[in-house]
Amino acid sequence: MITDSLVLSALLFVIGTLGVLIRRNAIIMFLCIELMLNAVNLTFVALSRLVGIDGQLFVFFVMTVAAAEAAVGLAIIISIFRHYETVDVQSFNLLKW
Amino acid sequence: MSALLDVIGYERWILHALVWLPLAGMGLVLWLPRERAKHVAFWWSAALFALSLGLWWAFEAAPGFQMASSHPWIPGWGVAYALGVDGISIFMVLLTTFTTPVAILGSFNYIEKREKAFYALMLLLETGVLGVFLSLDLFLFYVFFELTLVPMYFIVGVWGGERRIYAAVKFFLYTALGSLLMLVAILYLYFRAEEALGAGSFHYAELLRVPLTLQEQLWLFSAFALAFAVKVPVFPLHTWLPDAHVEAPTPGSVILASVLLKMGTYGFVRFLLPLFPAAAQHPPVVTLMLALGVVGILYAAWVAAVQPDAKKLVAYTSVAHMGFVVLGIFALTLNGLQGALLVMVSHGISTGALFLLLGMLYERRHTRLIEDFGGLAAVAPWLATAFVITALASIGLPGTSGFVGEFMALLGAFETHPWFAGVATLGVIFAAYYMLPMVQRMFFNRLHESANRGVPDVSRREIAMLAPMIALMIWIGVHPAPLMRRMEPSVESLVSHVERSLPAAPSAPAVGD
Amino acid sequence: MSFPLGTVVALEGASGAAEATGFEPFLPGLVVLLPLLGFLANGALALAAGRRSADAVRAGGEWHLPETERPLTHTWPSLIGPGVLLAAFAVTLVNFVRMWGAELHEPVVIPYWTWLVTGTLEVAVAIQLDQLSMVMMLVVTGVGSLIHVFSVGYMRDDPGYPRYFTYLNLFVFFMLVLVMGASFPVMFVGWEGVGLCSYLLIGFWFRDREKADAGKKAFIVNRIGDVGFLLAMFLLFTTFGTLDFVPILERAPETLVYGGALVSAVTLFLLLGAAGKSAQIPLYVWLPDAMAGPTPVSALIHAATMVTAGVYMVARSSVLFALAPAGSLAVAGIGALTALFAATIALTQYDIKKVLAYSTVSQLGYMFLGVGVGAYTAGIFHLMTHAFFKALLFLGSGAVIHSMHHALHRTGRHLDAQDMRNMGGLARRMPVTWTTMWVGTLAIAGIWPLAGFFSKDEIIWYAGAAAGGPHASWYALFWMIALAAAALTAFYMTRMMLMTFHGGNRTGEEEARHLHEAPLTMSVPLVLLAAFSVFGGWINVPAALHDGWVGLFGALPMGEGLHHWLEPVVAAASEVRAEHVGAFHETAPLGGGELAWATFSTLLAAAVVAGTAAVASRWRIAPAAEAGEPTGGLRGLLYRKWYVDELYDHIIVRPVVATSRFLWRVVDAGIVDGIVNATGSVSRAFGLVGSVVQTGVLSTYAFVLTVGVVVVLAVMAL
Amino acid sequence: MSDVLFYMFAALALGGAMGVVAGRNPVASLLSMVLSLGSTSVIFVLLEAHFLAAVQVIVYAGAIMVLFLFVIMLLNLGHDYRPDLRVTLWLIAPVAAAGALFGILSRGLRAAGAPAGTDSPVDAAVEEYGAIGAIARPLYTEWVVPFEITGILLLVAIVGALALAKKRV
């Protein structure tokens, strides 16, 4: 059960990474990142079965961080949208030398 | 005279005064309003020169360091603020204190913009250079060695000619890169000292006692040698010098030629020979250095002959002169070393004067190209006379300072390496080969350009600069004995130290075979 | 101050080892100091005059010497210049008389202050007085003063008058330092000093490009010779540990191996130095060009004094040359070869000064031949007599050129005042110059009673006599060459006289009226020199000839005078020679005694002179304008100086300049600087590679990040 | 019995995840994300982490996803949305990287896993303090400092979000 869920979380994590790499829409990329975070939570919970309660506790913190990050991330996306009129990641190439 | 000096306890504070007074001068110059800067700078450095003249009497001809003092600076690392002067460094100090006021006087109507900064940097440079020549602690030496880079970089970079940025950056990187290796070597020495002598120390005297195997010495020798070879400059590492000289303002060139180049050769004599005697006598090393010296003499002379730009020509002649110094040093004989020191002093004066003269010509015609001039002797006879005398001193005419140094260096080199000295003597011909055509194209021949017709002769200020230098050139040429007597004991102890520490290994030839 | 000003002022100096023999030098330092003071005084005047003429030039015009009242700067030098020389000559005479009285066996060395001092080397600024240096001092100051007096007239209306005397005095100072120096380095100071002064004086009219080039050429060629001198000094130092004459020449016989490699090397290097200074075969090219300088300069420097420095040096270190047969053979060989070679070139020259220049090179060849075969006194004797008649000839030609200038200047025609083809028929107009120059010509040709006969004949005789010793065949060859050159000398000198003074005048009717005799200041020295040329030879009539018709059956006063005088100086060398080579032979290679050959040579010379005179009168000589340069055949070759200058230009000058340009462009700017700049551009290139990854697109960054994570995990997992 | 449930919900979670990545428009992706979160919370329950399952549903699915939905609506990306997912050859590189990542992770995680059914220390704590007490007790004793810091973190996030998204005046 634990190993299966660990494999599941690895799969979810990989799908999340794939989403970030493939999609060009900022929101979707952001969603995929949330998915990756969720996968990590799954591993924490699964392993807390072995390690003890601390694992679950840590998920608690991860969630709060995810929430904070989502809030700020979306705020950034909004301010970028206001400037670029699009959320397509390709157009944010201000850093290009 | 020396009695008077003892009364005022001259020996105790002079070295500290020499190192820190220019810094105080810098503060004063920065503090005062703009138009007063140059006068203050000049009188301050001139006063310092007068003060340093006391060294001539206070220093008596004896081996070992005099007026030495050592105060702990960073006890944790064993770094001491140690100063001292001996036969080898005394004339470098006097040369520095003599050249700085002359260079400042030379820049009166040459430097128009940012005067305060310029004169402050010149005084900072003087502090750095004096620190290099006087410090007995390798850490302190390294600090001053690096310190001199900064003002020179700005002097060339800000007040220079068209390609000044390129020249300044090239100068800085070249020297800095070299000195980094030296830092590594100094640290290695420190830790070896810690191992061998218990307490790690940077002090020159202790480091002399550190036993090093030949292999170690070779590595350390090459690290130090690279740093100083760039500064000297020795043949393959010399290309920064012509650029730096061409782009530097006249006073910058004067200081660069007469003083900064000597830090390299001084480093060879002060650190390389005594600290790594076995490596310094290792036959491949000696042959390499002598070869580089001789190549430097002939190569630089040949390249100098075809330079269209007068300042570049004189820059290459400096490489040739320094070739003689390297030859003198690595002959490892008493005459050779004394010859090398004399060439350093006389080159400082004659090339410094040459750059001053070229600066005057630049001020008059705003060009450095030789063919723009012609027939100036008809219009500016006194300038022409001064130029010819300085040029003759530079190519080593007997009776001038140039000859005494070169003769002794060649003589010394001949004692141990006749073939190298033989080839180097050809350098004397090529000296005339590059100098006389320049003198002729600039001062003799027909006065064709109208611009040349209007060239004014030397002003009183310029005479005040040139007269002492020409007098020195002739005095050292005619009566070098007092200089040589003061140098001799230190050089004698250096040579015997190098020979004595020779392991009985058959590989190194007994000197003088 | 440790500078012992005291000793210099006292000028007495320690009188050295002279007490024993009673020779007590009289203010010897003054002889050297006087020209120096003259130099300083004239120098100040020259600087003042220079400043004034510079202001004139800067104002756009040209400063002309005012005809009426000459400025101070142009009157004082005529007093200081010659005055200083005459005073020096007087002091020298006093010393000479004192030395004549005393039986001086070793030189008197008077040190003034220590010049170079290290643990192993000690060189003092010291004067050495002995018979040899006394002879040279007499020649230098004597002939020098006459030439100074002549210059007053010759250079009168030259704007650079004070500057001229400054350089001339400086020259005499350095020449005296060379001659009176007590050690090789002090001699070297004089050696290069005279090189400097000849550079300044040849390029005196520096505004003219060729003249400045000639000066530069002289200095550089001299420097090539000086390298030889330096190397010889180094060798001597490493062997003897000192560079002073007295110790070296004393210890030479026992320390140096006879004919050994070391002594041969030293002598060959010294020969290279002497060849540079005395214009011998490889390094003679600068002397003909040195004629660009004012004529009195050519007389003083390039005839009487400087060029003889090489001979003096060989005579001074005669012991070394005696110990090195190879070295002496080389000296003799170079001398004989130069004598013949230069004589051939002189045959076809049209410029009067060029003829005399090549004649000087040839006569120097004789002196080298003399000292080469070991007859040092003969060499010095010829040096002395040559100084007299060659200075006379040069000053005579100066007088001719001077009056030609005046004439051409008056009518404004631009003709080469020195070209003999524009002269002719000057005998009537310049009788004094004409007679004195004939005396000089007969003397140099070697006609009996005159000085040239005695000195040149003695050298030829010793060359022949030496044919008996080792390298016999070589010396026999040199003997024949010397005889041939003597004949040629007689020919070209007579040709010169005839073209200049005899036949029809070719300058042009109008100018001819203005050709007149030189002023007194110029003709008096000529007469005096003529007198010396006549009686100069009698001070050293060879013993074998003394009671024959040559020596007027014993009437001539001082038989072998110079031999006895130079005896102590040459003693060491003759001992070595006697020990290793044996005495000179009695008969010449083809048999016959000294008297026979002496008679033959003077008759030969007389015949050639007479013959040329007869033949030359029928020559049709066209003025320079119409007559083109002789191009074809032997005449062309000789006129073009065997194309030696072009040869040197091609095999030395051009390659050196080409290599310099190559070294600069390719090696310095290309390779060395290239590497330095390359390090700069390499680091920029790495920067560029790095920047390719920064595409600015978010997903690329994410992708690189993922790849990074994968790699790290993989490495950790391994 | 719990294995079947586990596999069912695991499949659902994976389907949801794939839906997020392949979603034609943001809202579809969002909804499939919610699906995935829900099924994950069920798996939490299966792993005896009841409190977390609840928190997951409330905080994650409830709050954060709603926030996303709100932003999507705000930027009205919903309707005329051109799908930005184009299947090109360039996709191979990311897919390969993801595959490699999966390979490594699964290998590592599998090594860490242990056979199910062993009694874990979590159950003892739950008996003693109850599901919520088991988490609350360590939260307020050992981990109280991180707890406070996350509080501050949230505050900072709020201020940041406000500052960034505020319309420039």
What does this protein look like?
The complex is a heterotetramer of chains A (97), B (513), C (718) and D (169). By secondary structure, chain A is an all-alpha fold. Chain A has helices spanning 2-22, 26-51, 53-84. Chain A has a single domain (2-89), classed as Helix Hairpins (Orthogonal Bundle), CATH 1.10.287. Chain A is 81% helix and 0% strand. Chain B folds into 2 domains: 1-281, no CATH class; 291-477, no CATH class. Helices cover 75% and strands 3% of the residues of chain B. Chain B is built from 22 helices and 2 strands. Chain B has helices at residues 2-7, 10-31, 37-58, 87-106, 115-134, 138-159, 164-197, 204-208, 214-231, 240-247, 250-275, 277-281, 283-305, 310-330, 334-365, 376-379, 381-394, 401-416, 418-443, 450-453, 460-478, 481-500, and strands spanning 66-74, 79-85. Chain B has a two-stranded antiparallel ribbon with strand order 1-2. Chain B is globular, with a radius of gyration of 22 Å. In chain C, strands 1-2 form a two-stranded antiparallel ribbon. In chain C, helix 3 runs parallel beside helix 5 and helix 12 runs parallel beside helix 15. Helices cover 70% and strands 3% of the residues of chain C. Chain C folds into 3 domains: 1-111 and 127-178, no CATH class; 183-639, no CATH class; 646-717. Chain C is built from 27 helices and 2 strands. In chain C, a hairpin with a 4-residue loop joins strand 1 and strand 2 (122-129). With 169 residues, chain D is mainly α. Among the domains of chain D are: 1-79, Four Helix Bundle (Hemerythrin (Met), subunit A), CATH 1.20.120.1200; 131-169. Chain D is built from 6 helices and no strands. Chain D has helices at 2-22, 26-46, 50-74, 92-112, 121-140, 144-165. Chains A and D meet through helix 1, helix 2 and helix 3 of A and helix 1, helix 2, helix 3, helix 4 and helix 5 of D.
